[in-house]
């Protein structure tokens, strides 16, 4: 269990590269592994989840890794028995549960850490409804795969968009396709849209009507473009925006493409502007004018479609003049940690007050004039809570100790090094 002591911050203005999108990295890797044609992927997010997905698709794909790029296509002989360690990657675990249901052979998927206890029953029951053979013992999922006919599936949209992505990736492998009817409320809809975007880029025909999605069967994944570059991650870059704003520095963030953004992540820009943050968009870059921000306004926002921006937005809210409110965040309780509770703990450490209503999915935050610190944060190894703790700690008056900080490698392995370039001073234990 590692310990990171934040030992000061001397802010430096400059230019940084946006961390690559985790959401698109995982989606492109899975589609490439199912593609009948070779695909070269560049600009990938090399966090732990990426390695989980690479392990996950290796039994069914030909994969070459060279110079930071991945070249992949579907293999000709997938074998009949596979044991796959999916680590703590929820997207890998859930989508492969669907995909391997439609591929001949027996597959064991082994989750780690908090993923062992995260919800899966709704997805497993949905797959069983179209005759997939799946059982679960403890956290391990066993799949006896084969050619499925497909059919109609009704599934709740209130717990995880990854359930829907799992069914959508499976659908082309079935004989007749799958119609997915999503029961409202639908959380994280933009991540379903991101999956649909990638499927279409791999030649998969998709029909969407309101809360129903139909993907026809007996389709081959074939990449329209032989080379794909992963765009920057708006949700992770939001931490840069917070740092620049609250430190009062100007910062240019490169590699953010508006037309490639996950809408729920891009929403952070609008929320930040509504609070008084000055952000300029120039092509593939953002310019944050932290030096021009005088006072932050409190806001009320529905984050039902934007779970991954809750952490950086909470930091801005904690420095606004008045009470801010997040609604639609009940599903944060089912992430790598119960993020409603861990976010509140981080804010308490920083001297801000937060109240949560898990049943209603609401968090209210009272802003303070400064972050205090002088405390230790138990992050439970949750990568987004670690990032929130570190950014908050850099802006605090007293030192902050961040426990289990190495978990940030799930999505941003160069996190602390990137911050040191901007003037962060860390001690590692």
Question: How does this model look, in words?
Answer:
The protein is α/β, with parallel strands linked by helices and 429 residues long. It has two domains: 3-19 and 231-428, Alpha-beta prism (UDP-n-acetylglucosamine1-carboxyvinyl-transferase, Chain), CATH 3.65.10; 22-229, Enolpyruvate transferase domain (UDP-n-acetylglucosamine1-carboxyvinyl-transferase, Chain, Alpha-beta prism), CATH 3.65.10.10. It is 30% helix and 28% strand. It is built from twelve helices and 24 strands. The strands form six sheets. Strands 22-23-1-24 form a four-stranded mixed beta sheet. A hairpin with a 2-residue loop joins strand 16 and strand 17 (285-289). Helix 1 runs parallel beside helix 2 (48-57) and helix 5 (161-170) runs parallel beside helix 6. The protein is globular, with a radius of gyration of 21 Å. It starts with a strand and ends with a strand. The mean pLDDT is 97.
**CATH fold group of the largest domain:** UDP-n-acetylglucosamine1-carboxyvinyl-transferase, Chain
In DSSP terms, counting alpha (H) and pi (I) runs of 4 or more, how many helices?
12
What is the radius of gyration?
A: 21 Å
Which CATH top level class of the largest domain fits?
Answer: Alpha Beta
Major sheet: arrangement of strands: 22-23-1-24
Q: What is the average of the pLDDT values? A: 97
How much of the sequence lies in strands comes to 25-35%
**Largest beta-sheet details:** 4 strands, mixed
Distance between the termini: 9 Å
Number of domains: 2
CATH architecture identity of the largest domain: Alpha-beta prism
Shape from CA axes?
A: globular
User: How many β strands by DSSP?
Assistant: 24
Bin the helical content. 25-40%
Helix/sheet category: alpha/beta
| Weakly predicted, low-confidence segments | none
Q: Looking at this structure, what is the CATH superfamily of the largest domain? A: Enolpyruvate transferase domain
């Amino acid at each position: 269990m590692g310990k990171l002591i934040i030992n000061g911050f001397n802010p430096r203005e400059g230019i940084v590269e946006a961390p690559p999108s985790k959401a698109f990295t995982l989606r492109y890797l899975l589609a490439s592994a199912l593609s009948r044609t070779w695909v070269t992927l560049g600009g990938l997010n090399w966090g732990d989840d990426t390695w989980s997905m690479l392990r996950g698709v290796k039994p069914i794909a030909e994969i070459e890794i060279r110079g930071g790029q991945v070249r992949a296509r579907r293999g000709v002989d997938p074998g009949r028995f596979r044991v796959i360690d999916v680590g703590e990657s929820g997207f890998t675990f859930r989508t492969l549960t669907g995909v391997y249901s439609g591929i001949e052979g027996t597959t064991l998927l082994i989750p780690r850490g908090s993923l062992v206890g995260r919800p899966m029953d709704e997805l497993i029951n949905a797959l069983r409804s179209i005759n997939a053979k799946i059982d679960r013992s403890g956290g391990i999922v066993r799949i006896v795969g084969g050619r499925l006919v497909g059919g109609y599936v009704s599934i709740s949209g209130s717990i995880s968009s990854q359930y829907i992505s799992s069914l959508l990736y499976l659908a082309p492998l079935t004989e007749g396709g799958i119609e997915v009817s999503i029961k409202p409320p639908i959380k994280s809809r933009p991540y379903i849209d991101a999956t649909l975007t990638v499927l279409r880029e791999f030649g998969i025909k998709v029909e969407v009507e309101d809360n129903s999605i139909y993907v026809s069967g007996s389709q081959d994944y074939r990449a329209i473009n032989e080379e794909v570059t992963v765009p920057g991650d708006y949700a992770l870059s939001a931490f840069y925006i917070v740092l620049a704003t609250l430190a009062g520095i100007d910062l240019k963030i490169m590699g953010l493409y508006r037309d490639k953004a996950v809408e729920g992540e891009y929403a952070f820009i609008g929320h930040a502007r509504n609070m008084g943050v000055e952000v300029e968009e120039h092509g593939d870059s953002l310019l944050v004018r932290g030096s021009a921000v005088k006072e932050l306004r409190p806001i009320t926002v529905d984050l039902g479609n934007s779970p991954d921006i809750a952490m950086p937005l909470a930091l801005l809210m904690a420095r606004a003049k008045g009470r801010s409110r997040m609604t639609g965040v009940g599903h944060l309780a089912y992430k790598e940690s119960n993020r409603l509770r861990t976010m509140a703990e981080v804010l308490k450490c920083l001297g801000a007050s937060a109240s949560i209503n898990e049943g209603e999915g609401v968090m209210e935050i009272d802003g303070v004039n400064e972050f205090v610190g002088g405390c230790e944060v138990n992050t439970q190894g949750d990568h987004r809570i670690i990032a929130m703790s570190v950014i908050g700690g850099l802006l605090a008056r007293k030192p902050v100790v961040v426990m289990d900080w190495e978990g940030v490698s799930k999505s941003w392995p160069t996190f602390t090094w990137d911050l040191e370039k901007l003037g962060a001073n860390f001690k590692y234990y």
